[in-house]
Amino acid sequence: MTDLVLKGKAIKLWDNISTDDIIPGRFAHLRSNLPELAKHVLEDTTPEFASRVRDMSLHAGGEAILVAGKNLGLGSSREHAPLVIKMSGVGAILAKSAARIFFRNAINQGLPVLLCDTDKIGDGDELEINLTGGTIANLTSGITLSCSKMPPIMSAILKEGGLIPYIQKHKGFVITR
Amino acid sequence: MTLVEKILAKKAGKKVVRPNQIVEFSVDLAMIHDALGAHTIARFRELGVEKVWDPARIVVVLDHYVPNKDIDTAKKCLNIKKFVLEQGIENYYEVGKGGIAHQVLVEKGHVLPGTTLVAVDSHTTTSGVVGAFATGIGVDEMAVVFKTGRLWERVPGTIRINVEGKLRPPIASKDLMLFILKRLGVSGALFKSLQYTGSTISQMSIESRMVLTNMAIESGATNGIIEPDQKVVDFLKARTNQPFEVIQSDPDAEYAETLEFHVDDIKEPMVAVPPKPSNAVGVTEVEGTRIDQAFIGSCTNGRLEDLRIAARILKGRKADKFTKVIVIPASQEVLKAALAEGLIETFVEAGAVVGPPTCGPCMEAHMGILGPGEVCISTANRNFQGRVGDVTAKIYLASPATVAASALKGKISDPREFFREA
């Protein structure tokens, strides 16, 4: 089986991005209209985020990669937080650490979150992420980063494209060591 | 093993579990509310099953957008009610029957020591007050719980928060929690469990303890927990006929870390400055900051003792002419008791609006939303940018006493001047 590789460009953000930063509660009425909701992703802190992601995904051979610091997604249990990031066109998330519910919600939506030392990634860096091996080649700096190993249950959910397809296939959780 | 490890081991059918081990465990209780309930149901339908695994283990509470604020939220609640009827879920709390879900779960005796609770809300950690493993999950996971009654978890290592000394009013458990968060930070307990111990905790009421378990999530913790003592046993026996087993940490339990606190080190009431709950400073540092709104309520601080201390300060006085003062009891039970004690009359006389037991302006949900540049001092749990209304609005977090004192003056104020006679 060939490794799953994702190529793209970094959009560098910071530590402690809350679920209110990602999608503030004032847009709760748009939760049943996800494409519309996604237009507001991170708009309070990073108004150019959605258009940068769109521009990157329009260019051939690349995806936008959200690169954060520590504790990404602290706050609410709303799954709309990772969902709007995914809907906006982001292909993967890299962070030093992620809040528990956000991390699980992202994987459950089929959005890869890899934990690594994101200080070694700059805004706009060209990245090649090996999702299977858990390594990141920073093509801009020439540095290769390794990611913390994801629990097998999370990799398995990600592999099926999210929790709902995973459960449809396996009927329940399959826990391996 | 620590308390949380013992609960997860038992519910995973294992003799021993270790921190960071991935386990699959059985869910004793699952709660949905109206903010994410309809989404949960939609996901459950996608799984193609007709019936939930056990309707008796599901609690449904409407608390975020009720009485419904618009057609969209009314539709969501209708959808939830239809599901409740279809699935035969008995534990359903319509607006006017329950209150804020986290309060209702504990107050109605739904959560028992040694059990597991999951809910589609990050403040599910509150219920750890009875010695349960209680944590927040997303809607997809809840859909799976509805189908199977099972979920996976990474066993959290336990950080013991040991607190000694006697709290002197008006310094309360909220001040202690903000003080703890100042040390832990908003990611200090990521994937860990916070277990609160020590003489201060033993002396505390269940209500005060709930502030600590409620805000455990603000440090990134998976859950917050307190070993059940006689107070918890008596509290629950008055509220449920269901049998329960009291589980404690083993004497030789290994903690990831023990953090020692003494309440004498809390020199003054604490205020968390926006935009993080861990930005705690002494009230004198921000005293005089102009406010537009003072909110007393939420799953953190909307209980009877919170209303009592606020009423003690507001009694016979008038709130600032230009400050919106909002008091929202955490549940119908709290409201009823507050009415009987004359607290509600005190609030109304002081010029506060008293809202129906719901989440209120804790987040951008319903009632008390902030406009551009407005400043709110709130007894709730989060002060992130954009949490309650306009992105330029600012939220300061404090105890009910500090919020009540601030309501009187229209600026952040030290509640200690109202306690000198004692």
Reconstruct the topology from this structure:
The complex is a heterodimer of chains A (177) and B (422).
Chain A: E1 5-12, H1 19-22, H2 34-38, H3 49-58, E2 63-67, H4 80-87, E3 90-95, H5 100-108, E4 113-115, E5 126-130, E6 135-138, E7 144-146, H6 152-159, H7 163-170
Parallel strand pairs in A: 1-2, 2-3, 3-4
Antiparallel strand pairs in A: 1-5, 5-6, 6-7
Chain B: H1 3-12, E1 22-26, E2 29-33, H2 37-46, E3 58-61, H3 71-87, E4 91-93, H4 101-107, E5 116-119, E6 133-136, H5 139-148, E7 150-154, E8 157-164, H6 173-184, E9 192-197, H7 199-203, H8 206-214, E10 223-225, H9 230-237, E11 257-262, E12 270-272, E13 280-282, H10 283-286, E14 293-296, H11 298-301, H12 304-314, E15 324-327, H13 332-340, H14 343-350, E16 353-354, E17 375-378, E18 394-397, H15 400-409
Parallel strand pairs in B: 2-3, 2-5, 3-4, 5-6, 8-9, 8-11, 9-10, 14-15, 14-17, 15-16, 17-18
Antiparallel strand pairs in B: 1-7, 12-13
